[in-house]
Design a protein that fits this description.
Layout lengths: L6 E2 L8 E8 L3 H12 L4 E4 L7 H5 L4 E2 L5 H5 L6 H11 L6 H9 L1 H10 L8 E2 L12 E2 L8 H4 L6 E2 L8 H14 L3 E3 L2 E8 L5 E8 L2 E13 L8 H7 L7 E2 L8 H7 L5 E2 L4 E5 L3 H6 L1 E3 L13 H11 L5 E5 H6 L12 E3 L2 H7 L6 H13 L21 E4 L14 H5 E5 L2 E2 L6 E3 L5 E7 L16 H18 L3
Parallel strand pairs: 1-9, 2-3, 2-11, 3-8, 5-6, 11-22, 12-19
Antiparallel strand pairs: 4-7, 6-7, 9-10, 10-11, 13-20, 14-19, 15-16, 16-18, 17-18, 21-22
Helix pairs in contact: 1-8, 1-17, 4-5, 14-15
The protein binds flavin-adenine dinucleotide (FAD).
Flavin-adenine dinucleotide binds next to helix 1, helix 2, strand 9 and helix 17.
Length: 490
């Protein structure tokens, strides 16, 4: 097994490289940290174990959760305030969202949006007003559950999913701009270089890193601070088994290198971790189909309003309901889904009656029928008293009916998108315990001198929930703060 034990500075005869701030990992958090530290005048070196920067950030959808009154929100006709954003996120990322981090994140969100624009990212001032995991258009704004019950009752709804101007997945575009900005600010990067151990001096201060590069050991001295931005640990089966078993057996939302290196190196010198069991998990079920029909468990029962942010119906199903889960829709609802929102999904079973369909699905006789009859009775009056799906989606379901199996993925036969055949995939949200400035704390709540973390290597704004865009969002926001704090660290 690879050792993550610290190396005593006194045993390093001479360091191969020196800098002020050493950033470990060149994803979104690392790029934001490197940019700010270099802009503040620090000599910055970024280590990246892959052949180039990007990480999971570059593969991502590029949705950024921003609000409080951004230019895009205003142009699309929405008034928003940091308070409404805070109230929504506290509820949706809860229970137990980190309120101190969340407050700063919401209060600083408009400035953070402008920071992205200043780095060269463009956001179209147009809105994609349909339920989707990922709009196929270049629209700059989308809903991420803010207008769904119960969230619409606690905060004034405003869409906050900000998207760079590219179709579908835009993470590459964000990373393209942030990496260029960090390099232009003066940050240097050593690729194919995997940090393995922290170097600690006699006073307990982190002063560098030992890394492996092309089979050789290379040592790095950081005069002001080391910032760990190595991502989460979904690719480490042992860590998952220990801390986040909810993700075992599901697909991995990652670049394959999220194996917890930074968390393990820091834990080896006494760093505390937080919320290691908290995960984002997504089921391959189509929001556009579910809002027009329903999501049911193995007993044919609904359990949530289907118009919530899709990650929330995924968690509600996978963590709290007996599976398998089924998307149920009638012919009229299926035909109503715009082709661009259908993602190649076709019915797994079709039937003229609910009795036939529930038999195909292996449900107890009458189970699904009871659910649909009750749903229809209320839908006729434009109501959903059990789960409060928005009235615009309510309509009695009529034969013929279809059931779709989320385990099959989005495109026909696409097992990979279905997350290893389980129908779900995810990533980890827990990580190192940090202050709002990225300082890593030990188990006594004391700062570990010289050590910082941000992104998914750290625990961010999340409690037990996740909303798209909050990972790139808090990774860059707190990455920036860590970069500034490390640059100023004497
Ligand atoms: C397909 C997909 C879609 C997603 N969509 C969204 C979205 O739309 N919005 C959103 O907010 N989030 C999204 N996410 C999640 C989000 O991309 C990640 O949570 C986020 O990018 C994590 O950022 P990071 O900087 O912490 O880590 P990363 O971007 O993973 O960067 C970590 C970097 O550290 C490097 N590294 C690791 N260990 C070492 C080591 N020992 N030494 C040197 N380098 C090391 C890695 O190679 C990597 O480059 C998505 C993820 C995926 C995969």
């Amino acid at each position: 097994m690879r050792s993550v034990e610290p190396v005593a500075a006194s045993t390093v005869a001479a360091f191969d490289h020196e800098c002020d701030v050493l950033v470990v990992g060149f994803g979104c958090a690392g790029a934001a940290a490197a940019f700010e530290a270099a802009s503040a005048g620090a000599r910055v070196l970024v280590l990246e174990r892959a052949g180039g920067p990007g990480g999971s950030s570059a593969m991502s959808g590029g949705e950024l959760y921003l609000g409080g009154g951004t230019a895009v929100q205003k142009a699309c006709g929405f008034d928003d305030t940091p308070d409404d954003m805070f109230t929504y996120l506290k509820a949706a990322l809860g229970p137990h969202a980190d309120e101190e981090k969340l407050r700063l994140y919401c209060d600083g969100s408009v400035e953070h949006f402008e920071w992205f624009r200043d780095r060269g990212l463009t956001f179209n001032e147009s809105m994609y007003d349909a339920p989707s995991w990922m709009p196929p258009t270049q629209d700059g704004l989308m809903w991420l559950g803010e207008n769904a019950w119960p969230y619409d009752t606690v905060a004034r709804p405003a869409p906050r999913g900000h998207r760079p101007a590219t179709e579908s997945f835009g993470g590459w575009m964000i990373m393209d701009k942030l990496v260029a900005a960090a390099k232009a600010a003066g940050a240097a990067c050593h690729t194919d270089t995997r940090a393995a151990n922290l170097v600690v001096d006699d006073a307990g201060r982190v002063v560098g890193v030992v890394a492996r590069q092309y089979g050789e050991t290379v040592t790095y001295r950081a005069h002001r601070g080391v910032i760990l931005t190595t991502g989460g640990f979904v690719d480490n089966e042992e860590m998952l088994a220990q801390h986040a078993p909810a993700l075992l057996g599901h697909g991995k939302v990652s670049d394959g290198l999220d194996d917890g290196d930074g968390i393990q190196m820091a834990a080896a010198i006494g760093a505390a971790t937080r919320r290691m069991a908290v995960v984002q998990i997504a089921m391959s079920a189509l929001p556009a189909m579910l809002v027009r029909g329903m999501l049911v468990n193995a007993l044919g029962q609904r359990f949530i309003n289907e118009d919530v942010y899709p990650g929330l119906f995924s968690v509600a199903a996978l963590q709290h309901q007996p599976g398998p889960y089924w998307a149920i829709v009638d012919e009229e609802g299926y035909e109503d889904i715009p082709a661009r929102d259908l993602w190649g999904v076709r019915p797994t079973f079709v039937a003229e009656t609910l009795a036939e369909l529930e038999q195909e699905l292996g449900m107890p006789a009458g189970a699904l029928e009871t659910t649909v009859v009750t749903y229809n009775r209320h839908a006729e009056r434009g109501e959903d008293p059990y789960f409060h799906k928005a009235a615009k989606w309510l309509r009695p379901l009529r034969a013929p009916f279809a059931a779709v199996d989320p385990r099959l993925g989005f495109n026909p036969g696409d097992r990979e998108s279905a997350g290893a055949g389980s129908g779900a995939s995810g990533f980890t949200l827990g990580g190192l315990h940090t202050t709002v400035d990225g300082v890593v704390l030990n188990n006594s709540g004391q700062p570990i001198p010289g050590l910082y973390a941000a992104g998914r290597a750290a625990s961010g704004i999340h409690g037990e929930g996740y909303i798209s865009g909050t990972s790139l969002g808090d990774g860059t926001f707190f990455g920036r703060r860590a970069g500034l704090a490390a640059a100023a660290d004497a």
